[in-house]
Write a structure and sequence with these properties.
The chain has 339 residues and is of the alpha/beta class. Helices cover 36% and strands 18% of the residues. It has ten helices and 13 strands. The strands form three sheets. An eight-stranded parallel barrel has the order 1-2-3-4-5-6-8-13, surrounded by seven helices. The chain has a three-stranded antiparallel β-sheet with strand order 7-11-10, with no helix packed on it. Helix 1 (23-40) runs parallel beside helix 2 and helix 1 (23-40) runs parallel beside helix 10. The longest helix is centred in the middle third of the chain and has 19 residues, at 217-235. It is globular, with a radius of gyration of 20 Å.
Length: 339
């Protein structure tokens, strides 16, 4: 059995060919797609976060709205760039959204990825301490956020408060109990996956990672997952960790599918995400159902993960993306033992 959700980057463009021509379109359609996915039996609705781009950005109003409109489906991010975040304010926002959703938030965070502007986090008022990188700063923000979710008091109360205080040091409020176990780290390398395991965070691994061995993407990603699970076991955490991978997967069952994805990418790609880091981009899958099932059987990383996030082409609209999700759930997942 495998949890299956969707992941939307939330693109919008004023082009007449786009089904999402404004930020309002993307936000409202994201809510509608989450509702539709829940009705279809999907397990998760996840959203990417990008700043300075015509894409989804501030996640918590959207997560809260989805939580209010649904009752069962997991609601998450993949991922929030922690270089931009105030960890304390984020605890309040995330807890509020989780309480509205009844404890269904699955929050993916990371140190960030290539972005639209140069050092965009500086415009948000953040700068790495001397001798540290922006990646160090992102991980430090994540550590503070993750620690604050323990709910331990740390702030000295005012002796003459406006309202009565509970005894002792004060914590941030509201705080959603249990949210800390539902924080995921988006790891681009084996080392950061191990780091996340030691801290006790779940693991998100996308279609991009550092090319560390020259092997096929799914082989490297599977090795990353195994390294993470070994580090988790060594750390002695009590609960079982969760691991997600994301994939572009399209079953070609009608003329629309063939027109959109009949000539899709079927090989890994190599590139550089910065001047020093060689990266490997995982292939997409698009084929007739029988062929698609055989291709997915050979993906080692999907086999290692307990959660699969289907990246959806959100600009093609809610109806088409509901069709994509339904086809995977009804024609592909059962044949692979995921349902």
């Amino acid at each position: 059995m495998k949890k299956i959700g969707f992941l939307s980057f939330g693109h919008w463009t004023p082009s007449p060919q786009s089904g999402a021509r404004s930020a309002a379109d993307v936000l409202l359609q994201s809510i509608d797609l989450a509702v539709a996915a829940e009705e279809l039996g999907a397990d998760g609705a996840y959203f990417r976060v990008h700043h300075f781009a015509r894409q989804l950005a501030s996640p918590f109003p959207l997560l809260a709205a989805v939580g209010a409109r649904t009752s069962r489906i997991e609601i998450g991010t993949a991922v929030i760039d922690m270089r931009y975040e105030n960890p304390m304010y984020m605890v309040e926002d995330a807890s509020s959204a989780d309480l509205i959703a009844g404890g269904r938030l699955q929050l993916g965070i990371s140190r960030g990825s290539p972005e639209q502007v140069i050092d965009g986090w500086r415009y948000f008022g953040y700068q790495p301490p001397e001798g540290q990188t922006d990646a160090d700063m992102g991980r430090r923000h994540a550590e503070i956020f993750y620690d604050l979710l323990r709910g331990q008091g740390f702030a000295q109360p005012n002796p003459r408060p406006m309202f009565p205080n509970p005894p002792g040091l004060l914590r941030l409020e509201p705080l959603s109990e249990g949210l800390r176990d539902r924080i995921w780290w988006g790891a681009g390398s084996n080392a950061t996956a191990v780091w996340a395991a030691k801290l006790g965070m779940n693991l998100q691994s996308s279609t991009l990672k550092n090319d560390e061995t020259g092997e096929a993407f799914h082989v490297q990603q599977a090795a990353q997952i195994r390294a993470y699970r070994a580090a988790w076991k060594e750390a002695g955490h009590v609960r079982e960790p969760r691991v997600s991978v994301s994939r572009s997967i399209f079953a070609l069952v009608d003329d629309r599918d063939r027109a959109y994805f009949g000539n899709g990418q079927d090989e890994d790609q190599i590139g550089f995400i910065d001047e020093r880091t060689r990266a490997i981009f995982g292939r997409g899958y698009a084929a007739e159902p029988e062929a698609l099932i055989e291709q997915l059987k050979a993906d080692e990383a999907i086999a290692e993960a307990d959660t699969l996030l289907l990246t959806v082409p959100n600009q093609l609209g809610v109806a088409y993306n509901s069709h994509v999700i339904e086809t995977i759930l009804t024609q592909i997942a059962p044949a692979l033992g995921w349902r």
